[in-house]
């Protein structure tokens, strides 16, 4: 009897100290992360807004201890336009589904996502596509709660009317590119920092466009770049995270922003 009483007391202390998990979640109808038409082939644009009317969700987001929404950007490399590339829509959708399974992991999201590989098998071939994170200059890794773009509320939910990712040649070598991410500050864009940041590949290097550089690269990043392709394409994806005084880490679904074309060099 004494042992049973001791067990009950310990169990009571455990539940009081740990408490019940507090889960924060937004349905896809409560936010919009989407691409915006950009007429330039070397750039893509997008926007983010959270439209939830749930009072608890709103108070959680604008709480001073909440970080986010924080945006993370990802990419894959291909050597053909998505509109003509075989199985491109299937692969794109599969990457989005894989992100939900491996990173979003509803309702508990991963703290620090890393690139994940997706193996897509056709009847005649096996295609392996990897989803990579962008890094900052000097191999800077973006980690929660502050990712590439971080929203901080000032009594209202942060909003991004538009942001743009554009390819820029490096000053040292015009055949290598970095991606310049800018926030449109001409219209109210919420409190997002920074308003501009330069992005590089998952190892912190500029993107190659010369055939010799691509063929000698051993990271596997360019393994899906077909020999003789007329151009290199970065397929850009984005997701946002929210973390704070709740148990889980919320991740949105992965969104495709489109393609950035980098001209190939001999």
Description:
18% of the residues lie in helices and 34% in strands. It is built from four helices and 13 strands. Residues 1-17, 82-87 and 120-124 have low confidence and may be disordered. The strands form two sheets. Strands 3, 4, 5, 6, 9, 11, 12 and 13 form an eight-stranded antiparallel beta sheet that branches. The chain has a five-stranded antiparallel beta sheet with strand order 1-2-7-8-10, with no helix packed on it.
Radius of gyration over all CA atoms, rounded: 21 Å
Name the shape in a single word. globular
Oligomer: single chain
Q: Major beta sheet, specifics? A: 8 strands, antiparallel
**Residue-averaged pLDDT:** 77
* Fraction of residues in helix: 10-25%
| DSSP strand content | 25-35%
Distance separating the two termini? 83 Å
- Low-pLDDT stretches: 1-17, 82-87, 120-124
Structural class: alpha+beta
Given the structure, what is the number of helices? Answer: 4
In N-to-C order, the SSE pattern is HEEHEHEEEEEEEHEEE
Number of beta-strand segments? 13
């Amino acid at each position: 009897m004494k042992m049973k009483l001791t067990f009950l007391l310990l169990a009571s202390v455990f539940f009081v100290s740990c408490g019940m998990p507090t889960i924060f979640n937004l349905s896809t109808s409560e936010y919009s992360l989407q691409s915006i038409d950009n007429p330039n082939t070397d750039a893509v644009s997008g926007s983010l807004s959270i439209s939830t009317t749930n009072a608890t969700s709103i108070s959680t987001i604008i709480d001073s201890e909440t970080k986010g929404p924080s945006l993370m950007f990802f990419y894959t490399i291909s050597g053909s336009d998505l509109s003509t590339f075989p199985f491109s829509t299937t692969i794109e959708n599969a990457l989005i589904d894989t992100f939900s399974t491996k990173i979003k992991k509803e309702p508990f999201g991963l703290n620090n996502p890393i690139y994940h590989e997706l193996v897509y098998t056709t009847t005649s071939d096996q295609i392996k596509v990897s989803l990579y994170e962008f890094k900052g200059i000097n191999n800077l890794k973006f980690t929660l709660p502050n990712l590439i773009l971080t929203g901080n509320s000032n009594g209202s939910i942060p909003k991004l009317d538009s942001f743009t990712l554009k390819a820029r040649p490096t000053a040292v070598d015009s055949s290598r590119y970095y991606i310049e991410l800018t926030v449109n500050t001409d219209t109210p864009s919420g409190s997002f920092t920074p308003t501009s940041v330069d992005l590089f590949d998952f190892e912190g290097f500029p993107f190659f466009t010369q055939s010799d550089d691509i063929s000698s690269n051993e990271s596997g990043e360019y393994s899906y770049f077909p020999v003789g392709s007329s151009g290199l394409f970065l397929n850009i994806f984005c997701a946002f995270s929210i973390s704070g005084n709740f148990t889980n880490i919320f991740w949105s679904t992965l969104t495709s922003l489109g393609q950035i074309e980098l001209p190939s060099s001999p």
